[in-house]
Automatic annotation (TrEMBL):
Residues 360-371 have a biased composition (Acidic residues). It comes from Adineta ricciae (Rotifer). The lineage of its organism: Eukaryota, Metazoa, Spiralia, Gnathifera, Rotifera. It is a multi-pass membrane protein. It is found in: Membrane. InterPro entries: SID1_TM_fam (IPR025958). The keyword ATP-binding does not apply. Residues 1-21 form the signal peptide. This is SID1 transmembrane family member 1.
């Protein structure tokens, strides 16, 4: 061994002499081209110092004892002067590799460090598995004419190996990166890395293969392996299959020269300015590698969730088998007599009354043609209230039932078409996102809750995707229930057509089918979004929530106004505009946008108020202000409101919407899509509450099932919203700040609070839909001319 140790230095010195040749003139130019070569002595652990300029090159040969459980760090320092023209160049040669850096250690933003250190790569050793004596060669040179004082030292890193379950505290700075080695035990195939820090200095944490060179230098270190930016929390799931060659990886830590990559835009002013020497950016952190002792819970959670929804299906089918639909169970012994009497009444009324004149291009109950309306300059004839003092359902149900049925059947057809064309590119895009993560290793692309990600197949956060199964399962179940009711009502009309024309609310199921498809698609699109949550694809998670909210509002209105409803083309065109506005709000979340949105919101409320109050007789066009003025003028500016029950809902609804608009313009919430979604959900809640209160005021009967579904909807909405506000990530901030909001799993060691929101909100929507489906079951035996239109 001693012969080898003598042989290598001799060869190295001969190589240096041959490379630099003989010494020439001492002039500055010649000294730079042909400097003197000085062989320096230094021992391991000793602080070796010297002074150097362009006239010489200093060579060190340092012998050390290699141990596979430790690493060697080279520490260099210099005396920095502002008038210094050229830096020191440090070149460290191992047997199988070379690394180099300069002093002062500078960054692209101008920050300067007079000290720097690097860890020698173990893979450059001749024997990487057994202890032995080795040697490292260090060359120090400069082009600076004035002398520069420097020092260097080699030291051992004794805690270089990481172990499962053992925490390791360390310090790291921009000019002194650090990394650790971990080898998978034979019985462990994956581990969870948890890094915590008491400060928020921006740091890059990288998981790299055990190879040389180790990428621990500034920008290069952020493009290798799996990496994240870290403020105070960072976490990884690492699998042994990613490192098949050696079953080992390196965990690299590198502090960024500034916090620009980790702070929010509002906090950028807190970044230290460039040009400062030796800025104190020393991060104190602790790393822990945890074994996957609880990862088997993922399979338990999968089968438990599937089993729960199978039980719900079994319970639903059992109830449907035990309890026939209400339209199959309407006291059949009295229906034939009622049918005969109703037919006589309809025949007598048709002989005495004049038919309504309608215009297909307008959604009015009574109207003249468009030309007559424009030429006369007058308003359309007002619908008179009944003797009871209110407009009845019978007044707003004069169009042919089969015509309206076909009209509302267009809703699910349009919905299905939109769902197919919308979902296909979305699925392709998010799967490509997942492939990009795997290929680039950049885990800042997607905003996961890294403290609760459970990988399965190719999906990084399978638990976040799978928790959306409730929307899909309950959406299909709701479609089955609606189909059952649809068939029962069709059989009822076939047997008793006259009763179907005079009693109860006319049943149209097209919107219910569209709502069921929307619930299923919400699960699919939310699952796609959670494959890679980010600002770019957040609309995937909310688009069908907007559609569901609008369809619910239309359905409630359609229940008592079957003749006055928007066509599906108009409804979905409106929704397309809303989704476009949402996308604009995501990318241009600035004050001018919020003020513009608030103005449009208020003006839209005024237009829809006129449309609802005058029951479809107001045309929402670019001349809506003219039409609204004519209607108000002809009905009297200060006259008593003709439709008091409508005024009761429109006044508070407008107040709430104006409050929503002003809140957005003044406060400017963090997420515009969430704000807009709450606007629609708030309007839906107001309308539903108003509808139920009006039923109570008019003493309309509620069935047991409708009350049960309403109570279940309230329970699940209140509980799900609690978990919704427990935020675990946010795409509105930098990825490092978002990770500070991460939380551990709380259910079956698989589901976090947002997953629980997915499950509970799917039940909330399901029971809300069932509430709307059964809300008027108690008045199916009541004459329509006795039912108020509210």
């Amino acid at each position: 061994m001693s012969c080898k140790m003598i042989f290598w230095p001799i060869c190295f010195y001969l190589f240096v002499l041959l490379a630099h040749g003989e010494q020439f003139s001492d002039s500055p130019i010649q000294s730079i081209i042909n400097p003197d070569i000085e062989i320096k002595n230094c021992t391991f652990g000793e602080i070796c110092s010297g002074s150097i300029n362009s006239s010489s090159i200093h060579f060190y040969s340092v012998e050390y004892s290699f141990d596979p459980t430790m690493a060697i760090r080279v520490i260099t320092n210099m005396t920095y002067k502002i008038e210094q023209e050229s830096p020191l160049l440090i070149v460290v040669r191992q047997i199988r590799g070379v690394i180099s850096w300069t002093l002062p250690y500078t960054f692209s933003n101008g920050m300067v460090y007079s000290s720097a250190s690097r860890i020698l790569c173990l893979q450059n050793e001749i024997n990487r598995t057994l202890p032995h004596t080795s040697r490292v060669f260090i060359e120090i040179s400069t082009s600076n004419n004035a002398l520069i004082d420097y020092s260097l030292q080699l030291e051992n890193i004794t805690d270089f190996l990481l172990e499962t379950g053992v925490s390791r505290q360390f310090f790291v700075s921009p000019a002194m990166p650090i990394y650790y080695k971990f080898t998978f035990p034979p019985d462990i195939q994956n581990v969870f890395i948890d890094v915590r820090s008491t400060d928020q200095l921006c740091t890059v944490v990288s998981v790299q293969s055990f190879d040389c060179p180790v990428y621990d230098v500034s920008e290069i270190g952020t493009r290798q392996g799996h990496y994240q930016t870290m403020a105070s929390i960072s976490s990884f799931n690492v699998y042994a299959s990613e490192f098949p060659k050696r079953n080992t990886f390196l965990l690299v830590f590198l502090v960024k020269p500034t916090d620009a990559d980790c702070l929010n835009d509002q906090e950028q002013t807190a970044i230290r300015p460039s040009g400062i020497v030796d800025v104190q950016r020393r991060k104190n952190a602790t790393v822990t590698i945890q074994p996957p002792t609880n990862y088997n819970f993922l399979y338990i959670a999968i089968f438990t969730t599937i089993g729960m929804f199978l039980m719900i299906y079994f319970l639903a089918f059992a109830i449907m088998c035990k309890h026939p639909d209400i339209y199959d169970h309407l006291a059949p012994e009295h229906l034939p007599l009622l049918e005969a009497r109703t037919e006589r009444e309809i025949s007598e009324r048709e002989d005495n009354q004049q038919g309504y004149q309608t215009f297909e291009g307008e959604e009015n109950v009574e109207s003249t043609s468009t030309d007559e309306y424009e030429n006369s300059g007058g308003a359309i004839e007002v619908i008179e209230t009944s003797n009871a003092g209110y407009v009845t359902v019978s007044d707003l149900c004069v169009k042919d039932y089969d015509y309206l049925k076909q009209k509302f059947r267009i809703y699910p057809q349009t919905m299905l078409t939109i769902a197919i064309f919308y979902s296909l590119p979305v699925i392709q895009l998010v799967l490509q996102y997942q492939l990009n993560i795997d290929a680039s290793g950049n885990e800042d692309i997607c905003y996961f809750n890294f403290l609760c990600t459970r990988q399965f197949a190719m999906l990084t956060a399978f638990n976040n995707v799978f928790s959306n199964i409730g929307y899909c399962a309950l959406g299909v179940l709701f479609l089955i229930i609606v189909y059952r009711r649809d068939m029962a009502y069709a059989r009822f009309l076939a047997r008793y057509p006259a009763i179907g024309k005079e009693y109860g609310i006319p049943q149209h199921f097209g919107l219910f089918y569209a709502m069921g498809i929307g619930l299923f698609m919400e699960g699919l699109m939310s699952g796609c979004y959670h494959i890679c949550p980010s600002k770019q694809n957040f609309q995937f998670d909310t688009s069908f929530m907007f559609i569901i909210a609008v369809l619910n509002i239309i359905k409630i209105y359609q229940t008592r106004h079957p003749d006055i409803n928007p066509r599906s083309s108009g409804s979905f065109s409106f929704l397309a505009v809303i989704i476009l506005v949402t996308v604009v709000g995501v990318y241009y979340d600035e004050q001018w946008f919020w003020i513009t949105y608030a103005c449009i919101h208020i003006l839209s409320c005024v237009a829809f108020t006129g449309k609802i109050y005058y029951m479809g007789r107001l045309k929402v066009t670019f001349r809506v202000h003219i039409h609204l003025y004519r209607l108000v003028r002809e009905n009297g500016f200060f006259s008593r409101p003709r439709y008091l029950n409508r005024m009761m809902i429109l006044i508070p609804a407008n107040c709430v919407n104006i409050a929503f608009a002003l809140y957005g313009a003044i406060v400017q919430p963090e997420s515009f899509p969430n704000h807009l979604l709450f606007v629609f959900l708030g309007n839906l809640a107001i309308y539903l509450i108003y509808y139920i209160l009006m039923k109570i005021i008019h003493r309309e009967h509620f069935t047991r099932f409708s009350i049960l579904f309403l109570l279940l909807a309230i329970f699940f909405w209140s509980s799900s919203l609690y978990f919704f506000y427990q935020e675990v990530k946010s795409y509105e901030v930098q990825p490092a700040i978002s990770r500070m909001r991460n939380r551990a799993c709380i259910l079956l060691n698989t589901y976090d609070v947002h997953d629980i929101w997915h499950i509970l909100s799917s039940f909330s929507l399901f029971f809300s839909f069932l509430t709307l489906l059964t809300l008027d079951d108690g008045i199916r035996k009541t004459r329509r001319r006795e039912l108020a239109a509210f």
